[in-house]
Specification:
Helix content is about 45%, strand content about 15%. By secondary structure, it is α/β, with parallel strands linked by helices. It folds into 2 domains: about 180 residues, 3-Layer(aba) Sandwich (Rossmann fold); about 190 residues, Dehydroquinate synthase-like - alpha domain (Dehydroquinate synthase-like, alpha domain, Up-down Bundle). Strands 1-2-9-6-5-3-4 form a 7-stranded mixed sheet, with helices on both faces. Helix 6 crosses helix 8. The longest helix has 20 residues. The mean pLDDT is about 95. The structure holds nicotinamide-adenine-dinucleotide and zinc ion (ZN).
Length: about 375
Amino acid sequence: MVTIRVPLLEQRDASYDILIGAGLIRQLDKILPEYCPAAAYAVISDSHVGTLYGASVAEQVSGAGCQVELFTFPAGEWNKTRDTWASLSDRMLAAHFGRDCAVIAVGGGVVNDVGGFVAATYLRGVPLVQIPTSLLAMIDSSIGGKTGVDVPAGKNLLGAFHQPRVVVADPELLASLASVQLAAGLAEALKHGVIADAEYFAFLEREYAGIFAKHAPALEHVVRRSVEIKASVVSHDERETGKRAILNFGHTVGHAIEATSKYEVSHGEAVAIGMVYEARLAESLGIATAGTAQRIKSALERLNLPVERPDASQVDALVAAMRADKKVRGGEIRLALPRAIGSAHGDDANGWTAVVPEAAIRQVLVNT
Ligand SMILES: NC(=O)c1ccc[n+]([C@@H]2O[C@H](COP(=O)([O-])OP(=O)(O)OC[C@H]3O[C@@H](n4cnc5c(N)ncnc54)[C@H](O)[C@@H]3O)[C@@H](O)[C@H]2O)c1
Ligand SMILES: [Zn+2]
């Protein structure tokens, strides 16, 4: 087992550990009393993962003799809503979960986000344990304390920061994950390589076949290195006022592709496409070295990810969606861009995003 600490500088007592190791899912009877003792546990999961893993987690925890109940909701991004949050909270209230309870979120990013938001708000906040089960959840959504739901006006617009007590990432659980979901997580992994570690990027370029074949050492390396990178970035900037912005590489165009495709394109796929356009933009602005975008594109293709905007995402609609992004400030479109493979553009003095003229964005979206 590997333990990666997320030291939160602004809020030291909320610092937490991410435990990574094959078989950890069977050791919760030891992990929970140590990291998150509670009188009762509400296990929150979705309809797929609840059957695969949620029920056995609940069974294992109830062996320790405390109140445990499994609450599931139908799987899918379209269920990451206020209604799901309300229904889960109401069911916990009806089952008389009190302030001495904790929430265990077992699932992909949707469960991490909605289960985390229930924990953040239930009786004004109860402790949270994240057990991510998709690659994207292990290396991204379970780390950093962001929780929330989607609303008709946009994704993730209601939520709260709520740090987990511990994150338990067991790569064995990825055995049941569909390849398309694995690829979606790999888009974020490749992003970590671009913004922080050229050697890791090269590993993903080289080892893609072993990763798709789910060879344990390859998968464990991906989970470990990506967690290290994300944990190190968020621990310096819990509330996203500085360096954390670099994690948004690929996401400004990516979110616009998600929205304009009416979420037909998944988050990971949209980020893959977004990284290609944003890297081309960085090259056209003289920020990134020549060839950066082409190398990202080739690597994404090996990872079975799309690299071109779909027909549904026309340029005007994309630009309008980018302007509606919650990160737009004062009408300026700001993007987190790479300088080269392994290095993000920006610094603490001048900021970690670049203001990009709309004309330059249009040119890249039209011409390529
Ligand atoms: N909070 C954050 O910082 C953050 C960061 C990135 C993404 N997100 C959010 O994460 C969500 C995407 O996460 P996701 O891609 O994990 O989606 P998801 O939770 O919908 O999972 C994808 C599908 O895989 C299934 N699944 C999950 N684990 C499985 C397993 N081990 N075996 C078989 N099936 C499994 C799920 O049931 C679901 O059907 C989005 O809502 C996004 O906004 C949040
Ligand atoms: Zn993302």
